[in-house]
Design a protein that fits this description.
- The complex is a heterotrimer of chains A (307), B (304) and C (543).
- By secondary structure, chain A is an all-alpha fold.
- Helices cover 73% and strands 0% of the residues of chain A.
- Chain A has two domains: 1-34; 41-68 and 77-293, Orthogonal Bundle (MetI-like fold).
- The relative contact order of chain A is 0.17.
- Chain B is mainly alpha-helical.
- Chain B has two domains: 2-67, no CATH class; 88-293, MetI-like fold.
- Chain B is elongated, with a radius of gyration of 24 Å.
- Chain C has helices at residues 2-5, 7-15, 17-21, 23-29, 141-154, 158-162, 188-192, 254-262, 274-282, 311-320, 323-328, 361-370, 389-402, 414-422, 441-448, 453-462, 471-482, 486-502, and strands at 67-72, 96-97, 99-101, 107-109, 112-117, 122-127, 164-173, 176-181, 198-199, 217-223, 227-232, 245-250, 268-270, 286-301, 336-337, 378-383, 407-412, 428-433, 506-519.
- In chain C, strands 1, 10, 11, 12, 13, 14, 15, 16, 17, 18 and 19 form an eleven-stranded mixed sheet that branches. In chain C, strands 5-6-8-7 form a four-stranded antiparallel sheet.
- The longest helix of chain C is centred in the last third of the chain and has 17 residues, at 486-502.
- Chain C starts with a helix and ends in a 24-residue tail after the last strand.
- The chains are: A mainly alpha (307), B mainly alpha (304), C alpha+beta (543).
- At the A-B interface, helix 1, helix 3, helix 5, helix 6 and helix 9 of A face helix 1, helix 6, helix 7, helix 8 and helix 10 of B.
- Chain A: InterPro entries: ABC_transport_permease, BP-dependent_transpt_permease, MetI-like, MetI-like_sf, OppC_N.
Chain lengths: 307, 304, 543
């Protein structure tokens, strides 16, 4: 892993100034939009965000309104996406579910970001034994099956949305810590940081003013993609029986609960599946787009997670 | 490296003891077909398994055993944990290799097309296609594959191990999840190589574009890809857990999940340790490969 | 194809002969047989020794050969089965106990033809003649003694469970075994009518995982975590197995199990998901059988946790619930609407005599008004292993909400679920009960007696409990548990259950049925209420 950091570091050095200079360059937006995929990603994400915001307005029914004797109805004018095992309107549940999915993703990403950034900055900037100790801890967590950690946390705290979020966050922050530490290490060598140090600028100020802005790009990209992986992770935990508590209309839980219907009441499982897919695709495309625009190369480390 | 293993094992120990659900009770209940064991039976079990002793002492005992090459026995059966793990390795290894092969099969062509036609329709299409796989929760993808390829087309068995045909669907399920990542790698690596001078040289010599791409660029582009892909093996287990459940493959992932839910502590501890060793070793191997490929790369003090 | 249609008729005719033959011991033996039950009064013929299946009636040509693959949710190669050479006696028929359990949940003479209580604490079992082990040797009393010793030494809980200590099983002669129980234990025969208490030959090998039993199929090959392949045992004492080869495969995921059947990878699949039942039944090529089991699903009310200590609230919840709606919709008509917590198939379930709480929303609302319920959300716990549990609890949540009672659902992982329940944390608990043996007494004892396992912890620590109503019910259960007389047992247990339902300690949901799906060629499946006791001897695949 270290090597990736170092390669990333080198390129970060190479691209930092260039990137920094062009922050205000509006061509960026043009470049971003010129890639159709980015537009598609933006579109997908917007659809999900809008659904979440306007769920109560658009949804034909409440997400938890049951109608046992009209369960598993196929899509119709009344229920455009059919009804589920308890006769609830699938479309309504999906719309409300968008809120929950986004909520979870945002929360997890925010927690991982906070922990990861803090640890990464401290390790990278402090160096020495602090760095050593923190990075060892990261190594340990990385070598640890995330699923076990998540299961134990869900087990101890009881499976519900908050605890799923904690579980995914505990598993997820290490990547940020590594990337940020790597970036900090390389930025630290930069002339302007050294200069600031010599001028007696306080450490906190150096970190905030000079280092943080320089490591922001990979983190933004990683965070965007993480939004996607959190949703997939929730679905995976649901499959293992550790999903959101019923009747929460969480997509992963809906998908997992409906998994026996793939070829019978296909709407019960495939619509939540599609919702997840579109969202994950959207965030991934967005992340790719951001990366290309902000930093076309060397984001190899920003990869692969999920359960 | 040793530190990581010690850390991982301590963490496992602590986590297991934090987990609610008494192993003695859980295991005896399971053995008794769902009936709850008597307090004496529970006490007896704890006594036998040394669960009454203070946690640090239990840990030291365990480490002592492990250092003598003894991963202990499962609570449920007399089989040594090491045997259980060894029995399960082939299924997971097979799945991991096949999954990786699928990922590469998808990723290399799409990555190349993407890079060569950068910014044009084929680039967008192949990037999009590669992302579809990773965007589907893998159990859903697994069931869909079963229904289409097993039930409707009758091409593959639904589940189990043995023979290539039972490996195809699980490998696709696992591999397509990774394809997007590898495609990204291939693409960016390819773009980088295509920028290099020697490619320009080759072009200026009048070589056909196709030859330039496949002979010169690809070879160089794939080296970093393959090494980074090697690293992903460490992560494959997470995906393998679900794929192994859906396709009923007796592998390490399924074993881990069963053991966690069944509170079979020796198996969980042994397995986590083995996984950590695999992880550390792959990291180490990749580090070495890097050094070999590019001696200029220097390492910080953190080679795991 | 005579043999495929005659199973039931023959079973009726041949099978009950066994019950007649043990009638003599019934008086003292407690739950020792079907003697007092209506079934034994039917006119039966038969030789009294052959109880298994159609092909046993002296006509060995019914054997059709062929092979079948049965998909189980459990792994027959894993678990605690070293004692039996590493293969599970559940489902597989490789090993057999002294007593089997019949279609009517009665004790069925098996390797023992007869048993009798010779005193309060001694039992004499007579073994069947000319039973052969897979290695060709005859079964004698010493083998039984040896087998029990194995079990008693292997499982620390076995002596407490069976009320038998190591050393108290003795061979009186070649065909008679005496058991001395540690205290008067009238349900001893029923308790050992259990797959786990199987008889095996001392030459079986733990190390090389080689079981030697007396069953119709013997192990050929086992692949850990995948399958056990068995072949028919020609010298089986109870008919000739009709298949050459029978394989038990483990497929833990219910959906995958059903899909494997649909795909023709397996011939029989236990417990497919209910959502696939219709598909499997209407599909050309497969069909579905359901069989009533001795299990029940109900909501338990923690009567020591306010506000559930108010019977009015508990009754209100009962009036809010429509069992038949649940069975008809969520359960796809699999299972029977319940009136009590004990399966109807158990003779003392009191099903007929229990108060009926028909769904009556108005009445329920009134009761809630009168009760001490203050609007606080009740914690409703269930295990994530409970099949259809999340759907049932959500439907109940809606109904309870309709009468003004708020409920929060908490799904927990199985191991922590049991812990949470016993600590008395939840208000409501989705429970499912059942038995794997011929003795069902513990179903009522462990759940509703103050010293039963659910209540024990809190009862001893704080003098409370979970589902135990107290002294009166305890005494009724105690009396029923200790009597050997069927009628008295029935009467005591019924009284206890009536009290339990009057006080609305539970909200019954359904008596369980289990589902077995098979390809159309499969016939003569001999399902038993206890699914693990399914007989395979007569199974045919029509190939």
């Amino acid at each position: 892993m270290s090597n990736q950091d170092s390669t990333a570091n080198q390129s970060v050095i190479a691209t930092t100034r260039r990137r920094y200079r062009s922050v205000k360059n509006s061509r960026r937006l043009g470049r971003f939009l010129s890639n159709r995929l980015n537009v598609v990603g933006l579109l997908f994400v917007s659809v999900v965000v809008l659904s979440a915001i306007f769920a109560p307005v658009i949804a034909p029914e409440g997400p938890n309104e049951q109608d046992l004797f009209n369960r598993l109805d196929s899509p119709s004018a009344e229920h455009p996406m059919g009804t589920d095992q308890l006769g609830r309107d699938v479309l309504s549940r999906l719309l409300y579910g968008a809120r929950i999915s986004l909520q979870i993703s945002l929360a997890v990403v925010a927690i991982t970001l906070a922990i990861g950034t803090a640890v990464g900055l401290i390790a990278g900037y402090a160096g020495g034994w602090v760095d050593e100790a923190l990075m060892r801890f990261v190594d340990i967590l990385l070598a640890f099956p995330g699923i076990l950690l998540a299961l134990v946390i869900a087990g101890i705290l009881g499976p519900n949305l908050t605890n799923i979020m904690i579980a995914l966050a505990v598993v997820g922050w290490t990547q940020y810590a590594r990337i940020i530490r790597g970036s900090v290490l390389s930025v630290k060598q930069e002339e302007f940081v050294k200069a600031a140090q010599l001028m007696g600028v306080p450490r906190r100020r150096i970190v905030l003013r000079h280092i943080l802005p320089n490591v922001v790009t990979p983190v933004i990209v990683l965070a965007t993609m993480d939004m996607a992986y959190v949703i997939l992770g929730t679905a995976g935990l649901s499959f293992l029986g550790l999903g959101a508590q019923p009747p929460t209309p969480e997509w992963g839980t809906m998908l997992s609960q409906g998994r026996n219907f793939v070829d019978t009441a296909w709407w019960v499982v495939n619509f939540p599946g599609l919702a997840i897919m579109i969202t994950v695709l959207g965030f991934n495309l967005l992340g790719d787009g951001l990366r290309d625009v902000l930093d076309p190369r060397d984001m190899g480390d920003v990869e692969n997670k999920g359960m | 490296m040793l530190l990581v293993l010690v850390g991982v094992s301590i963490l496992t120990f602590l986590l297991l003891f934090l987990t609610p659900g008494d192993p003695a009770e859980t295991i005896l209940r399971q053995q008794m077909g769902g009936r709850t064991p008597s307090l004496e039976a529970i006490e007896q079990f704890r006594q036998n398994e040394g669960l009454n002793r203070p946690i640090p002492i239990q840990y030291v005992d365990w480490v002592t055993d492990v250092l003598q090459g003894n991963l202990r026995e499962s609570y449920y059966q007399e089989t040594p944990v090491s045997t259980l793990i060894i029995n399960r390795i082939p299924a997971t290894l097979e799945l991991a290799v096949a999954g990786m092969a699928v990922a590469l099969t998808i990723a290399i062509p799409t990555g190349i097309i993407s890079a060569v036609h950068k910014g044009k329709a084929p680039d967008y299409l192949s990037q999009f296609a590669a992302l579809v796989g990773v965007s589907m929760p893998n159990f859903w993808l697994g069931y869909i594959l079963i229904i289409v390829f097993s039930l409707q087309l009758g091409l593959f068995p639904v589940a189990g191990v043995g023979g290539l045909e039972s490996l195809v669907l699980p490998a696709i399920t696992l591999g397509s999840g990774m394809a997007a990542i590898v495609t990204r790698l291939v693409r960016s690596s390819m773009l980088e190589v295509l920028d290099e001078e020697y490619i320009d040289t080759a072009r200026s010599k009048g070589l056909r574009e196709r030859i330039v791409i496949y002979k010169h660029a690809l070879r160089n582009a794939l080296i970093p890809v393959v090494t980074i892909v090697g690293l992903q093996f460490g992560y494959l287990l997470n995906g393998a857990v679900i794929v192994e459940i859906v396709f009923q493959r007796p592998g390490l992932g399924a074993l881990l999940i069963d053991a966690i839910f069944a509170r079979d502590y020796p198996v969980v501890q042994g397995l986590v340790l083995v996984i950590a060793v695999i992880f550390v070793l792959t990291n180490f191997a990749v580090d070495l490969t890097y050094r070999y490929i590019d001696p200029r790369i220097s390492f910080g003090g953190e080679s795991a | 194809m005579e043999d495929s249609i005659t199973r039931r008729t023959l079973l009726g005719a041949v099978g009950a002969g066994g019950f007649v033959s043990i009638a003599g011991c019934a008086g003292d033996s407690g739950d020792g047989g079907g003697n007092d039950d209506p079934y034994s009064s039917e006119t039966k013929t038969g030789d009294g020794s052959s109880t298994d299946n159609n092909s046993s009636s002296g006509n060995n040509s019914t054997a059709t050969g062929g092979s079948a693959n049965v998909a189980l949710s459990m792994d027959p190669t894993e678990g605690v089965w070293q004692v039996y050479g590493g293969v599970s006696p559940y489902y597989t028929n490789i090993l057999e106990p002294l007593i089997w359990v019949s279609e009517e949940m009665k004790l069925e003479p098996w390797l023992a033809t007869d048993w009798e209580a010779t005193s309060d604490t001694t039992w004499e079992f007579t073994l069947r003649d000319s039973v052969k082990f897979h290695n060709g040797e005859d079964l004698v009393a010493e083998h039984v003694v040896w087998s029990f010793e194995q079990v008693l030494n292997e499982w620390s809980y076995a002596p407490g469970w069976l009320h038998v200590e190591s050393g108290s099983v003795t061979a009186i002669d070649e065909t008679t075994v005496e058991f001395e129980t540690s205290d008067p234990f009238p349900t001893f025969p029923g308790t050992i009518a259990h797959n786990m208490i199987a008889i095996q030959h001392p030459d079986r090998s733990r190390e090389n995982t080689e079981p030697i039993g007396t069953g119709p199929y013997q192990v050929e090959e086992r692949t850990q975590g995948q399958r056990v392949r068995t072949s028919g045992f020609d010298d089986y004492w109870n008919g000739t197995p009709s298949l050459d080869e029978l394989t038990f495969s483990v497929i833990t995921d219910p959906n995958t199990r059903a899909l494997s059947l649909q795909n023709g990878d397996v011939d029989v699949a236990f417990d497919p998901p209910k959502s696939r039942v219709e598909k499997l039944d209407s599909n050309g090529g497969t069909n579905v059988t359901t069989q009533l089991s001795p299990g029940a699903v109900y909501v338990g009310c923690n009567i020591y946790k306010a506000p559930m200590d108010d019977p009015k609230l508990r009754q209100a919840l009962n009036y809010a619930t429509s069992q038949s709606d649940l069975v008809e919709t969520i359960l796809s008509n699999i299972g029977v609407p319940a009136k009590g917590p004990v399966a109807e198939s158990i003779f003392w379930s009191a099903h007929e005599k229990l108060p009926a709480y028909e769904q009556d929303v108005e009445k329920a609302k009134e009761l809630v008004e009168e009760s001490s319920y203050d609007g606080e959300a009740l914690q409703f716990h269930l295990s994530n292993q409970q099949v259809d549990g999340e759907l049932l609890t959500q439907a109940l949540q809606q109904w309870f909400d309709d009468i003004g009672v708020k409920v929060d659902i908490q799904v927990t992982e199985e191991a922590s679920f049991e812990d949470t329940v016993r600590s008395g944390e939840p208000h409501l608990i989705l429970e499912s009960s059942g038995t794997n043996s011929g003795a069902a007494d513990y179903l009522i004892y462990e759940t509703f007696h103050s010293e039963g396992d659910v209540n024990e912890r809190l009862y001893n620590e704080e003098g409370t409990g979970i589902y135990n109503l107290g002294e009166e019910v305890d005494q009724l259960i105690q009396a029923g548990f200790q009597t050997g007389d069927q009628a008295e047992k029935e009467q005591k247990y019924e009284q206890a259950l009536q009290r339990i339902m009057e006080e609305a300690v539970v909200v019954p949901i359904n008596y369980s049925e289990y589902i077995v799906a098979a390809s159309d060629g499969v016939s003569s499946m001999d399902l038993r209420p206890i699914p693990e006791m399914t007989r395979w001897t007569g199974l045919q695949t029509g190939q």
